[in-house]
Specification:
Blueprint: H1 2-14, H2 22-74, H3 85-93, E1 101-107, E2 110-116, E3 122-131, E4 137-149, H4 159-163, E5 173-177, E6 195-196, H5 207-210, H6 227-233
């Protein structure tokens, strides 16, 4: 009898199973949910920030490489004389850029191009000119704005028409191209390719934030033109004091 009871007790001990109660499982899941809720916005923001940084840098490099290739064919960019956006795109850029699609666009009387890239970004090219009622070009600056969208959908209409100005510095970044402009206010674009917009900039890094005309911190949404320059001057990394979160 002693031996039988001993083996019986041993059997019961070795076959006893343990596990979590329902309450313990629910508490654990709740903790996981709270942690996820706290960390996900940060992870998403960091991802979006990285996308902006990576695509800005790639756009800058690709665009200026295309311009260098065009110079080998057409000569120094200071001597280029495109009459409008179509002329600039067709004769200088289109054959030297890798893109997946291009669309016609217009802003008032100006023709524009929206160029889409394989990484999901796009650029709105706007070479400044004026023409008369007969379609003859009466004024040309040989340059203009390149409005870069790390996410292409923000360059498209009607979104851009409704939100484009207030999205500058966050979803849309302003670049300029004026290699043969003689006005001293364009000195950071003279002899350059496509550069972050720096017209009227005095060289003071703080002014890129604080300028009431084009500073990234200005309260006037349509004038946040210096934002891309801030990121470029920080090695194409968005600084901690950047005015916008992603």
């Amino acid at each position: 009898m002693k031996n039988k009871n001993f083996y019986s007790k041993t059997w019961n001990i070795t076959t006893k199973k343990s596990g979590f109660t329902l309450a313990e499982v629910l508490i654990t899941l709740g903790i996981i949910g709270v942690v996820a809720a706290m960390t996900m916005p940060v992870l998403v923001s960091n991802y979006r920030k990285n996308v902006v940084e990576t695509r800005l840098k790639k756009f800058y490099s690709s665009m200026n490489q295309a311009i260098k290739m065009a110079e080998a064919e057409y000569g120094d960019k200071e001597g280029w004389q495109p009459k409008d956006t179509d002329d600039f795109w067709n004769n200088y850029l289109s054959k030297h850029l890798n893109y997946i699609n291009v669309e016609e666009n217009s802003s008032g009387s100006r023709k524009q191009k929206i160029v889409y890239f394989a990484d999901g970004s796009a650029v709105k090219i706007d070479i400044y000119f004026s023409e008369n009622d007969d379609g003859e070009v009466t004024m040309s600056t040989q340059g203009g704005h390149f409005l870069f969208c790390p996410e292409a959908k923000y360059c498209k209409e009607p979104y851009y028409a409704e939100n484009g100005e207030k999205d500058k510095g966050k979803r849309i970044f302003t670049f300029g191209f004026w290699p043969n402009e003689t006005n001293s206010n364009f000195k950071y674009h003279k002899n350059k390719g496509v550069e972050p917009y720096m017209v009227w900039w005095n060289g003071d890094e703080k002014v890129l934030y604080t300028s009431s005309t084009y500073g990234c911190n200005t309260s006037e949404a349509s004038k946040k033109m210096y934002c891309a320059a801030i990121i470029q001057h920080n090695g194409w990394k968005i600084p901690k004091d950047y005015p916008f979160r992603f």
